Amino acid sequence: MLEINNVTKIYGEGSARVVALDRVSLKVEDGDFIAIMGPSGSGKSTFLNIIGGLDRLTSGEVILDGHRIDNLGENDLVDIRRGKIAYVFQQYHLLPSLTAMENVLLPLIFCGDGGDEQKVETILSRVGLGKRAEHKPSQLSGGEQQRVAIARALVSGPSLILADEPTGNMDQKTGNEILELFKELNQEGRSILMVTHSADIARQAKQIITLQDGRIISKAVQQSVR
Amino acid sequence: MKLYQIVAKDVMRRKRRVLYAALGVVIGTMTVVGVLTMAFAGQAKIYKQLEQYGPNLTVIPAVNNLDMKLGNLSMGTLTVGDNYIPQSELPAIRQIADSNIREVMKIDDQGNIATLAPYLYENTKVNGVSVVVVGVDPEPEKLVKSWWNVGKGDYINGPDSVLVGSLAAELLKLNVGDTILFNNNELKIAGILDETGSSDDYQIFAPLASVQKAFDKDGMISSLDIRALCNSCPVETIADSINKNIPGVTAIAVKQIAKSEMGLVDKMSNLMLALGGITLAVGLFGVVNTMMSSVHERIKDIGIMRAVGASRNQIIKVFIYEALIIGVLGGIGGYFLGTALAFAIGPLVFEGTAISFVPQYLPLALGVSIVVAVAATIYPAIRASQIRVADSFRSV
User: Fold this and answer.
1) Chain B residue with minimal CA distance to A11?
2) Mind telling me how many Å the CA of A46 is from chain B's nearest CA?
3) d(Cα B29, Cα B27) in Å, to the nearest integer?
4) Each residue of B362-395: pLDDT tens digit?
5) Per-residue pLDDT at B246
6) CB proximity A91 to B under 8 Å
7) Contact, B311 vs A82, CB < 8 A?
8) Among residues A174, A157, A158, which one has the least CA distance to residue A166?
9) Which residues are CB-neighbours of B375 under 8 A, at least 6 positions away?
10) Phi-psi sector, B105: left (phi>0), alpha (psi -120 to 50), beta
């Protein structure tokens, strides 16, 4: 479903020039669950951002379902964010003035379908927040906020979820709960690309790739995962 | 749930910031509304005076510098000289006025059209107090002084009945039924006028013929008011024509006096409106500034919205909705503060003017402040829409 060919990303110019990604290629099939590991500054987040069209690449191409998306204009990228690709961030990135319910409604509002609160309730119950719908982010724990963010990612029905260290701010127990949620989503057939620092978390993915200095230095397929 | 509801919630969270932005609009709108309210009151005052004291034309003896009676502008100072207009000129003046009006209004009727109210002013003493006696023609006088209201007794109803102005009655201790003497001619008080706020209050009105007889001024009048009773009557032409054809008199169209008076108000208003405009422009830059920092403050929020599917236009909309809220707040605030401003300094600018609420300026104030707020937000909103999601998260 997703093909990344020779993607290079260079920040800055002259002496400030930093090669964040150096000719990276990767294929993601339907139903894949790939953990991306690597030290800080290895280009993991840049990689995710480029796949999702949040950042522009310097050279190479990204193909989603047979169409190049790396060269799309802002308006077409909006369409991709409204149903094909969704994000989950380490910092949750919820809007502080809105309740959990409203934060999850947000993607629907932007699609022009802000009335479907039923759907949002169903999804919130699914991530275990049925009773916390009217709480604001400041009234929720980190794990709960991440559940809201996952619900928000799910509400537009994406086939690919990009998660940038979704468990990075959590203790191990909460992190595992969030990971279980991702596994469930994967079992439903959604592809997941997840950046993580934690080897424990990565081990539960179907595939692990490791980045270093902007290059993929290893790919490992794990057969043992349930 | 709609986008504007999301914006409203966000605004509620950032009340102080939004009020601060609205302040820039409030100050500009306040100035404009204040100026307009004052100018409105000033104009209303002049119109009222015109309506009350303004016959369309006044004819006075050519060499006499009799003051115009335009309300407060010359109140109480009536110089009565030795120069008079012969009453025999009245038919000629009437002829000029009527024929001009006939021509313009295309009237064939040969009857009288304009109302001619002659006056003869005489100084005399009643009960030992100096007072001005005005000889009037009762019937036309009634038409010209449409605002007169006889509070006690009746209107002039015979050759020896008089009407007394309210303050004159008070000062001279006169009552309905009393008799007064003008050079040994006995006249009876038929009625007392309600207060008018004009020089009429200090005067005594008697039939013209009686005054002429009592003061030995047979066939003479001091001045003549002509009321054409139509808006499009050619009063300037009539005035010119009278000045050309009748020797020894000066005819003045009251409009001319009104014009210079209005011109002054207009000039003041324009000057202050220009000031208001500048204040608005300064307010606009204030809003641009606040909005820019609001964009900066919310880079992360904008990135989040973009990441979950907001288009550039939707980001612009978010800021425009916010501008509308600021505009409405600024308009309402500006209207009330502007009116308060007019109440505070209006009486100083246009002496003795009664300021009042002008409700039709509320939509105007809203319009002005919304336009300013939205205009000030366009650039910041476009900048906001160009924020890249990845950059927005990096900057946090």
Assistant:
1) B391
2) 9
3) 6
4) 999 999 999 999 999 999 999 999 888 878 877 5
5) 84
6) yes
7) no
8) A174
9) B284
10) alpha
Partner residue facing B1 (CB), from A89, A95, A109: A109
Q: Which amino acid type is present at position B288?
A: V
Nearest Cα to A93, choosing from A17, A167, A160, A149? A149
Report the sign of the C-alpha dihedral through residues B114, B123, B192, B202, in that order. positive
Contact indicator for B368, B32 with CB cutoff of 8 Å: yes
Asked if the C-beta of A117 comes within 8 angstroms of chain B's C-beta atoms, the answer is: yes
Contact with chain B for residue A90, Cβ under 8 A: no
Closest C-alpha among B307, B299, B297 to residue A106: B307
Residue B63 forms contact with A (CB below 8 Å) = no
A33 DSSP β-pair partners: A192
- Domains in chain A (CATH in brackets) are 31-48+81-221 (3.40.50.300)
CA nearest neighbour of A218 among A7, A48, A202: A202
Number of CB atoms found within 10 A of residue B12's CB: 11
Nearby residues of B394 by Cβ (< 8 Å), 6 or more positions away: none
- Could you tell me the CA-to-CA distances from A160 to A37, A51, A185, A210 in Å, in that order? 18, 10, 10, 20
Q: Kindly state the tokens that stand for A158.
A: 């994406």
Judged by a CB distance cut-off of 8 A, whether residue B9 touches chain A is: yes
- The lowest-confidence range among B50-54, B113-117, B180-184, B252-256 is B50-54
The pLDDT assigned to B231 comes to: 58
Is pTM beyond 0.80 here?
A: no
**Considering only residues 350 to 389 of chain B, which have any Cβ-Cβ distance to chain A shorter than 8 Å?**
388-389
Q: For chain A, how long is the longest CA-to-CA vector?
A: 54
User: Looking at the partner chain, which of A74, A94, A98 has a beta carbon nearest the beta carbon of B6?
Assistant: A98
